[in-house]
Structure formats: C-alpha cells, structure tokens
Specification:
293 residues
C-alpha cells in the first residue's frame, strides 16, 4: 500500500492528480467523489482500484478520467456517474489515431460501471471511449437509466448518445452490457476486435420514429459471439427498429449466435442483423441467427 494514494471523498481532484503525477497508484475507498478536473492517468502500469463501487461524478462538464496511451494501466471497480452538465466522455482510454501496440502489456478496464441518470439528471455524450490498441474490457455495464429518482429520467433529461465507442485495433470485450442509449449503443470502429457475450437493451423512451435514427461503422475484421438485443418501446410502441445489429458485409466480420426479443411484445425489431432474421413477435419467442454472414 505504500505505492498507493488512498483516496477518500474529501480529497479533491487536484490532490488525486498530484498523486498520479508522482507515480502513485490509486485506491478509491467507498463514497461519492465530485470531480471538477479530469483525472489524468499518465504513467504505465498504474492501478486504479475501487472498493465498494466508489462513485465518480464530474462537475462543470469535465471528462471524468483520461488514461494516456501507455502500457498496462488497470481500471477496476469504479462507478462513473454522469454529472448534470454534459460531459463528452466519462472515461477515455488512449489517444485516438494512435498506432502504438500494447499487445504484450495491454490496458484493462474491468468490473467498471457507467450510469447516466437514475440518481441525478446526468448527461454525457459517451460513457466509455477506447482508443488504445489491444485494450481488454471485461464486465462493463453502461446504463442510461430507464427508471430512478423523480426528474432524473426522460428523453430530454438524461441524454446520452453512446455507451461504448471503440476506435482502437485488436480490442477484446468479454461480458459487455450496454442499455438504453439514444444513438448507437456501441460503435466499433477498430479492426481486429472480438466480443464475447454482449447484452443490450434499446432505449425504452423514443418519443417517435424521427427522434431515434441510426448509422453504421465500417470495419473489415471483427469476431462476435453470444449477442442479445431487446426492445421495449413503452413510451411509443409504434417505434420500430429496423435491425438490432448493423455491420459491413465482409468475410472478416463474423457474428455467432445472435438473438433479439421484444419484451412483452412492446415494439418491434424487424431484423436481427442488417436485413437477416425475422421480426420479434413477443418476449416468449426470441429470433435467432446462428451465424452471419
């Protein structure tokens, strides 16, 4: 523990940054931390560990944490909770456009959750952005709240575009859960990625079809296994999702064991992936696609 700065909620972001700059690891004790300047993790092999899910809330629209494009930073056991002023990102890993390989000593983000709304009327455009190549992300739940305290949930209240954006190459995601974001739940731009077990729920609350439209990334290599997507358009059941998963048609992008479900039959997903797979009839009958293409 002599190598750790033991943080408590009374510590300021400036104090935490000073400890990081000195080469300390971070140990966050339980509590709520108000972060008024971005926490910058710049040294390789830094451990940022939370116990009891310490909650980091940005103030004034700052980005909560930025990890430099260095080897072997480990983020584990934190809850990133969006503040009431919109942040562009809650956690960013690496530098966009970097060509540095971390294959021999990757950055990892594990057992880390993201929350937009539910407790407070939080707003953040992106929850997690992964720019660093070879990053490992494991047991990640990114949640735009569909319920919570009064006044903290609504289409124009807890706004958030994306749960996860991957720009780095050769990123591995195992146990990925992303729910209710207002644009793409996940945007995967980096080649050589792999996803093993993914669960998502589309936003429950699009007020109409025009308010919720989507786009597509363009990659040439990705492997995905065990993916499920669920809809429940309880604000307007007439809203239709054309498909749950969207991917370029190329031999290097392959999906295995996909399913879609309409929870309670409230709303429709017309296809599973691109134009393949039938419409979701009800919560008792998932639509399966065993492989694509």
């Amino acid at each position: 523990m002599s190598h750790f700065f033991v943080a408590t909620p009374s510590d300021t972001a400036a104090q935490i940054n000073a400890a990081l700059a000195q080469g300390c690891n971070l140990f966050f004790t339980p509590g709520v931390y108000n972060i008024n300047q971005t926490l910058n993790v710049t040294n390789p092999n830094t451990v940022v560990l939370g116990i009891g899910f310490p909650t980091l809330i940005p103030t004034g629209g700052v980005n909560t944490m930025q990890v430099a494009d260095v080897d072997a930073v480990r983020i584990d056991g934190l809850l990133f909770d969006a503040g009431t002023t919109n942040s562009n990102a809650l956690l960013t890993i690496g530098t966009q456009g970097s060509t540095v390989s971390h294959a021999s000593n990757p950055i990892s983000v594990q057992d880390t959750f993201f929350r937009i709304g539910g407790d407070i009327a939080g707003q953040a455009t992106n929850s997690l952005i992964v720019n660093a190549n070879n990053t490992l992300i494991d047991d990640i739940w990114a949640w735009r709240a569909d319920h919570g305290n009064s006044g903290t949930v609504g289409w124009t209240v807890n706004t958030a575009a994306h749960g996860l954006v991957v720009n780095g190459a050769n990123v591995l995601a195992t146990g990925l859960f992303v729910e209710h974001y207002q644009q793409q739940q996940v945007v995967w731009n980096g080649n050589g990625g792999e996803t093993i077990f993914f669960q998502d729920e589309m936003p429950y609350d699009p007020p109409n079809q025009a308010a919720w439209m989507d786009g597509s990334p363009g990659v040439t290599s990705h492997q995905a296994y065990g993916m499920g997507s669920y809809c429940y358009f309880n604000v307007n059941p007439a809203v239709v999702a054309d498909h749950a998963f969207e991917a370029p048609d190329t031999s290097g992008v392959q999906f295995h064991d996909l399913l879609t479900v309409s929870l309670g039959g409230v709303g429709v997903i017309e296809h599973v992936i691109n134009e393949v797979g039938g419409a979701t009839p009800s919560n008792t009958t998932p639509v399966d696609v065993t492989s694509y293409p």
